[in-house]
Amino acid sequence: MNALPRNRKLSARGIAMLAAMISGVALAGCTTTPTGELTTIEVAQGSDENISSLTAVIERNPSDPEAYNVRGSAYGRGGKYQEALRDFDKALQLRPNFYQAYANRALIHRFLGDQASALADYNRSIQLNPSYDAAYIGRGNLYRKAGRVQEAFSDFQRAIQLDTTDPRAYHNRGLIYQSQGQHAFAIEDFSTAISLAPDAAEPYNGRGLSYIATNDEENAFADFNMAIKLDGKIAESWANQALIYERRGDKQRAAKSYARAAQLDPNYKPAVEGLARTRAG
């Protein structure tokens, strides 16, 4: 990655708090289930009812690789990973150059913890179609989780160069910029992600943290409040809101927001530590 100018930094106290917050948002960029990442099916189609309908389609067309790919995606969304793998295997048996099925199977391998197989499938998908943005984004997420930041950045960059409309490419590139203190670039990427997915809370959290890093507290607070409005069950959003209250000296409201974050995720360290700090004060 080319060296880029850094923005203003936080105070020593703020740096430690921001680092913990950024860690939480980075995790939010990779969900613990395939929702939002499988490439060929809508969320609602992961229901048992729709899987039954897709099974009926396969029974009528047992040699159709598209049908297996779609049902595999539905199984993945429903958390039925082994069933998903079997369907993607079948789709690829029927159509060996099915690059979408390779990318979908890679995601299932990733969630099952088989990172080597996931990487091999993403590589094969890209080999078959070097212009397939979803494979670059998936592989970039794999690299980012493995700490291979430069390779992750390159993959997100490539997806963006391909004119992707997938907000994850911008969101995750923004996280990388943010982790390196390049907050102007991060804010721009998070803003693009928001324009592509205005109902997603995570880019608001990410952008808000970079606003804090540039001492733009008002915009940070607005972003954290919007994240809560969009999804009130994300601990990071409440902890981020609490951070603003704490910076403003309003420990009572800060403690209340930290408490909500800790209730949602008792293991979320910034919330637990923030609650202890503000209650003690």
TrEMBL record:
<keyword id="KW-0677">Repeat</keyword>
<feature type="signal peptide">
    <location>
        <begin position="1"/>
        <end position="28"/>
    </location>
</feature>
<dbReference type="InterPro" id="IPR050498">
    <property type="entry name" value="Ycf3"/>
</dbReference>
<dbReference type="InterPro" id="IPR011990">
    <property type="entry name" value="TPR-like_helical_dom_sf"/>
</dbReference>
<dbReference type="Pfam" id="PF00515">
    <property type="entry name" value="TPR_1"/>
</dbReference>
<dbReference type="InterPro" id="IPR013105">
    <property type="entry name" value="TPR_2"/>
</dbReference>
<dbReference type="GO" id="GO:0046813">
    <property type="term" value="P:receptor-mediated virion attachment to host cell"/>
</dbReference>
<feature type="repeat" description="TPR">
    <location>
        <begin position="99"/>
        <end position="132"/>
    </location>
</feature>
<dbReference type="Pfam" id="PF13414">
    <property type="entry name" value="TPR_11"/>
</dbReference>
<keyword id="KW-0802">TPR repeat</keyword>
<protein>
    <submittedName>
        <fullName>TPR repeat-containing protein</fullName>
    </submittedName>
</protein>
<dbReference type="InterPro" id="IPR019734">
    <property type="entry name" value="TPR_rpt"/>
</dbReference>
<dbReference type="GO" id="GO:0009279">
    <property type="term" value="C:cell outer membrane"/>
</dbReference>
<dbReference type="Pfam" id="PF13181">
    <property type="entry name" value="TPR_8"/>
</dbReference>
<feature type="repeat" description="TPR">
    <location>
        <begin position="235"/>
        <end position="268"/>
    </location>
</feature>
<feature type="repeat" description="TPR">
    <location>
        <begin position="133"/>
        <end position="166"/>
    </location>
</feature>
<dbReference type="Pfam" id="PF07719">
    <property type="entry name" value="TPR_2"/>
</dbReference>
<feature type="repeat" description="TPR">
    <location>
        <begin position="65"/>
        <end position="98"/>
    </location>
</feature>
<feature type="repeat" description="TPR">
    <location>
        <begin position="167"/>
        <end position="200"/>
    </location>
</feature>
<feature type="repeat" description="TPR">
    <location>
        <begin position="201"/>
        <end position="234"/>
    </location>
</feature>
<keyword id="KW-0732">Signal</keyword>
